[in-house]
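Quick one, tokens below:
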């Protein structure tokens, strides 16, 4: 016996209250709708990457489970694009988008406020005619589905941000411990330096000391990153000195390879910025550039003055970056094509550059080149005064 409307509404709200996962909720709702409205086929499609993708369906062949329709294509695609519902009764449409013989068709958008999330399609009503009440019920069902989708998206976002928060806490507690342990190592190294050791050993101690200082700085970066605030300790130095230091390190990294790192200082600016942090910015960019060169190539590092800014460019003849990835580069944890990348390098770079009131841009052509351009004030102190 056919259920009455009240029974159907109660059943739908019960599903809404007991099911959170979309792969359970949406099929359950459309099955109720199919039975009550007496249609042969029903499908629920959601928008993802500018496409309508089949999410739940009843009455279709199994192979239609993975149907995708570009927004704007066919009736469902148009409804998804415009948000305007379509009802066709006993029309001359003989086949629907999937090639089925069709006599009546209704496509209703799933909306959350002004945002269109997908469409609900109903095909072939038993008596070939959708009544006004059918249309209203279909709208109600679409709105319940939209509510379920929106609730699920919100829940997933919350779960993601909670995971990130926990990872952040873990990172900062580890970074904090490493920082303290490195302080102890540094103190012992200082004591060793005071001992009467031979000059060669002294060089080794100096090298270990400078690397320990660098790791110490890195852990501070991670702490800054977890707190989402960067502390800046200004030092005066010549940009050429910083570049030479980078070149020395890059030389060690590219030893036994056919990768060359060239440094050009067009204006040897006197910088007043956080030296350790700007070192890490350039070093991160140079490391990425070296990683991007498969066998043979060049990394060119340049610095020049532009008004109050120092413009630093890191250009490489590596594999380049595809269009799709360009927009994701500075997102935390975005990494691609590396087995050991954590995807934090560029996120930290951006954070440090912006903390210096600067900006960073990227230009690339796949298979040809990549160039990062960093623009920071060479005298951060005077800029900081202006921003107060
Ligand atoms: N010069 C470049 N050429 C080509 N791809 C690059 C270049 N610089 C960055 N990328 C791409 O951007 C991604 C993100 O870089 P990022 O430095 O943030 O992370 P990562 O290098 O993967 O890991 P890590 O946290 O160890 O730095 C890289 O995985 C790489 O795919
Ligand atoms: Mg990197």
């Amino acid at each position: 016996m056919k259920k009455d409307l009240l029974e159907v509404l109660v059943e739908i709200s019960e599903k809404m209250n007991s099911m959170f996962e979309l792969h359970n909720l949406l099929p359950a709702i459309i099955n109720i709708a199919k039975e009550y409205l007496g249609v042969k086929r029903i499908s629920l499609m959601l928008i993802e990457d500018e496409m309508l993708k089949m999410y739940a369906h009843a009455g279709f062949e199994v192979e239609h489970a993975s149907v995708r329709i570009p927004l704007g294509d066919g009736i469902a695609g148009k409804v998804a694009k415009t948000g305007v519902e379509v009802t066709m009764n006993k029309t001359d449409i003989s086949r629907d988008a999937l090639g089925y013989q069709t006599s009546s068709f209704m496509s209703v958008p799933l909306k959350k406020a002004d945002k269109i999330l997908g469409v609900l399609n109903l095909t072939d009503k038993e008596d070939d005619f959708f009544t006004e009440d059918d249309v209203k019920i279909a709208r109600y069902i679409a709105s319940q589905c939209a509510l379920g989708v929106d609730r699920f998206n919100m829940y997933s976002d919350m779960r993601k941000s909670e995971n990130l928060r926990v990872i952040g806490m873990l990172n900062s507690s580890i970074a904090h411990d490493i920082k303290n342990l490195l302080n102890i190592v540094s103190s012992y190294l200082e004591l060793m330096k005071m001992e009467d050791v031979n000059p060669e050993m002294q060089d080794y101690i100096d090298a270990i000391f400078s690397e320990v200082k660098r790791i110490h700085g890195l852990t501070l970066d991670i702490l800054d990153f977890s707190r989402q605030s960067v502390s800046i300790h200004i030092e005066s130095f010549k940009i050429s000195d910083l570049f030479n230091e980078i070149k020395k390190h890059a030389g060690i990294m590219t030893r036994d390879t056919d990768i060359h790192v060239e440094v050009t200082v067009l204006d040897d600016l006197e910088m007043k910025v956080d030296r350790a942090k700007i070192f890490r910015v350039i070093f991160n960019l140079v490391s990425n550039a070296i990683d991007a060169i498969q066998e043979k190539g060049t990394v060119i590092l340049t610095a020049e003055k532009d008004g109050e800014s120092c413009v630093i460019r890191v250009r490489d003849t590596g594999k380049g970056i595809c269009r799709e990835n360009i927009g994701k580069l500075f997102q935390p944890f975005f990494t691609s094509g590396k087995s050991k990348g954590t995807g934090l390098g560029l996120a930290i770079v951006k954070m440090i550059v912006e903390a210096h009131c600067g900006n960073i841009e990227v230009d690339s052509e796949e298979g040809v080149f990549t160039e990062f351009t960093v623009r920071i004030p060479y005298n951060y102190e005077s800029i900081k005064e202006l921003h107060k």
